From TrEMBL:
<dbReference type="InterPro" id="IPR058245">
    <property type="entry name" value="NreC/VraR/RcsB-like_REC"/>
</dbReference>
<dbReference type="GO" id="GO:0003677">
    <property type="term" value="F:DNA binding"/>
</dbReference>
<feature type="domain" description="Response regulatory">
    <location>
        <begin position="1"/>
        <end position="99"/>
    </location>
</feature>
<dbReference type="InterPro" id="IPR001789">
    <property type="entry name" value="Sig_transdc_resp-reg_receiver"/>
</dbReference>
<dbReference type="InterPro" id="IPR039420">
    <property type="entry name" value="WalR-like"/>
</dbReference>
<dbReference type="Pfam" id="PF00196">
    <property type="entry name" value="GerE"/>
</dbReference>
<keyword id="KW-0597">Phosphoprotein</keyword>
<keyword id="KW-0238">DNA-binding</keyword>
<dbReference type="GO" id="GO:0006355">
    <property type="term" value="P:regulation of DNA-templated transcription"/>
</dbReference>
<dbReference type="InterPro" id="IPR011006">
    <property type="entry name" value="CheY-like_superfamily"/>
</dbReference>
<feature type="modified residue" description="4-aspartylphosphate">
    <location>
        <position position="34"/>
    </location>
</feature>
<protein>
    <submittedName>
        <fullName>DNA-binding response regulator</fullName>
    </submittedName>
</protein>
<dbReference type="InterPro" id="IPR016032">
    <property type="entry name" value="Sig_transdc_resp-reg_C-effctor"/>
</dbReference>
<dbReference type="GO" id="GO:0000160">
    <property type="term" value="P:phosphorelay signal transduction system"/>
</dbReference>
<dbReference type="InterPro" id="IPR000792">
    <property type="entry name" value="Tscrpt_reg_LuxR_C"/>
</dbReference>
<dbReference type="Pfam" id="PF00072">
    <property type="entry name" value="Response_reg"/>
</dbReference>
<feature type="domain" description="HTH luxR-type">
    <location>
        <begin position="124"/>
        <end position="189"/>
    </location>
</feature>
Length: 192
């Protein structure tokens, strides 16, 4: 079995319209899309493909700097981003990964993404560093949708005590209203 025997290339297209026409002709497992297409953007093609073919694996293969375009391609609906200068083994690995339902990014992009996640987690942690354990517990209950009276019952405290904790939370988190506190709690701790 040769290096490429596991794959069959159905068609090629140089622009969005011919790519969409080719997609309509037969069933495809994977689309490899360049960011630069004749007369248009590969990002727009990716968005259209994702809307029309939800199960299609989409790999972006481009000469454009992944630091600038990989995130945009993923947001548009791609399952991976690969630079054109990568070796054949990387390309085949990327194709296999996206066909298996995984996301493919270079080691450098994975490292950047991990650093971003760690930075975001530290930022959230710093944001709530000054609140007490009881305030954190109340913030969590707010995120779960409990009101002041319900929280007071759950924690066996008076509603005035819970209201005081909520006021302290708004002050410590520099929030203007109870609605802002609820929004903050849901964004930080809400069930996904």
């Amino acid at each position: 079995m040769g290096l490429y025997d596991e794959f069959h290339v159905c068609c090629e297209a140089s622009d969005k319209d011919s790519a969409l026409a080719a997609m309509a002709e037969c069933e495809h497992d994977l689309a490899i899309v360049d960011i630069s297409l004749n007369g248009g953007s590969g990002l727009n093609l990716i968005k259209t493909l994702r809307q029309n073919y939800r199960q299609l694996a989409i790999l972006t293969l481009s000469m454009h700097d992944e630091a600038l375009f990989a995130e945009r391609a993923l947001r548009a609906g791609a399952n991976g981003y690969l630079m054109k200068q990568e070796g054949t083994e990387h390309i085949l690995s990327a194709v296999r990964q996206v066909l298996d339902g995984n996301v493919y990014l270079s080691a450098g992009m994975l490292n950047r993404a991990a650093q971003q996640l760690m930075s975001n987690a530290r930022g959230k942690s710093d944001q709530i560093a000054g609140i007490t354990e009881r305030e954190f517990e109340i913030l969590h209950l707010i995120a779960l949708g409990f009101g002041t009276r319900d929280i007071a019952e759950k924690l066996n405290r008076s509603t005035k005590t819970i209201e005081a904790h909520r006021a302290n939370l708004k002050d410590k988190l520099q929030l203007d209203s109870g609605r802002d506190l609820v929004r903050f709690a849901i964004q930080l701790l809400g069930e996904k």
